[in-house]
Amino acid sequence: MLDIETGFRIDDRVIAWGVTLDEACRLLGVPAAHSASGDIVLRSGLGLGLPAVSARLSAPAADRPVLAVEYALADVGGFRPDDWIGAVSDLFGPPDHCVRRAIAEGQRPQDGVVLHARWPTGDFRASVSIFGAPRQVAHGLSIGTLWLSWSEERAAAPYLAEWHARAGQLAASAADPAEIEIHPLDWPAYPAHGRAAGGLETEEGRQRRRRLLCLHAPDLLETPGEIAERLTPSHFAIWRPASVRVWCASTLWDTVVFPLDEPVSVTRIEMLPAKGGGYGALEIGRWNVRSAQGSAAIAAAEATIAAFPGVSIVRHDGYDC
User: Do strands 264-273 and 311-320 pair parallel, antiparallel, or not at all (unpaired)?
Assistant: First the structure.
């Protein structure tokens, strides 16, 4: 069986788990990734020792670790779907799930999956899908896809201490806010990654959300209790601590913090009714709130934020199509 604890393989190169996407690209001698998704396609002749035409590395961002590798399996003459399952089983042992499907009537075989299997791999997840016929992909013809992904818990571990330190500093500064404005929303906001984390009612769910924030949205910090107790899901706050020269925007769950005088771009959106009913929104990096079109609360918060040194407002107007 293949040892994947140490890293993933591109051709004969092993890249250690925990390496950032930028560093992985440097090690492989390819241009650094600049896409927002943190994905890059590489030419590869072997994926975990199997014939492949390409490999796609996925990470939350260029400065975050690779979480998954997607190998496009090469079309090998005479290899049947069950042969691929056997080849992957040689790497990981017997699959714990295997499903066969027929190509739907009228569907092109290359657009359908005839066999899907997954393997239990501890801190890793492996799965494979075999198409009904070879499919054109970035670097050639592929007969299927082999996925390998890493535990988010292990990936986030090196980043948690720094994130908790920033959250602790924010909490300490919130004990006595110098200024605070609380604004109503017509629709409730939701915690970033809260639903994906399986809910925030349990400590396990809260811990998983913190890991997801560390990886996917490190600029979002948990809203301090002194601020959160003044809010509901249908309120947000713009506030400044008395002890630190920063300004903050908070929902019940999530807060962004910026030093005064630091250049910050804030997006103000106003969508007039069209097919949809319209809405107004504020977006500050990954933090955002949305309310009904023409919301006086959104306009008032925009005016407050615009007065902070270093802030520039970018306006987007249009129709809710």
Answer: parallel
Please, what's the b/e burial string for 64-103 (b: 16 or more CB within 10 A of its CB; e: otherwise)? Answer: bbbbbbbbbbbbeeebebeebbebbbebbeebeeeeeeeb
Cα atoms in the 13 Å half-sphere on the side-chain side of 70? 13
Cα 168-60-24 angle, rounded to 5 deg: 115
Using CA atoms, how far apart are residues 88 and 93, in angstroms rounded to an integer?
8
Nearest-angstrom CA–CA distance, 254 and 192: 7
Q: What is the pLDDT of residue 197?
A: 57
- Give the span between the Cα atoms of 194 and 213, in whole angstroms: 10
* Residue corresponding to tokens 């994906």: 196
Residues 6+ apart with CB under 8 A from 157: none
Q: Which of 155, 135, 160, 153 lies closest to 145 in space, CA to CA?
A: 135
pTM of the predicted structure, to 2 decimals: 0.88
Q: CA–CA separation, 240 vs 224, rounded Å?
A: 13
- Tell me the C-alpha distance between 238 and 247, whole Å: 8
Q: Which of 115, 118, 10, 23 is nearest to 56 (CA)?
A: 10
Q: What pLDDT, in 10s, does the model give residues 127-155?
A: 999 999 999 988 889 999 999 999 999 99
- Secondary structure tally for the chain: helices H, strands E: 6, 19
Residue where the block lists tokens 């241009």: 31
Residue 36 has pLDDT above 70, yes or no: no
DSSP assignments along 130-147, one per residue = EEEEEEEETTEEEEEEEE
Q: Are 294 and 280 in contact (CB under 8 A)?
A: yes
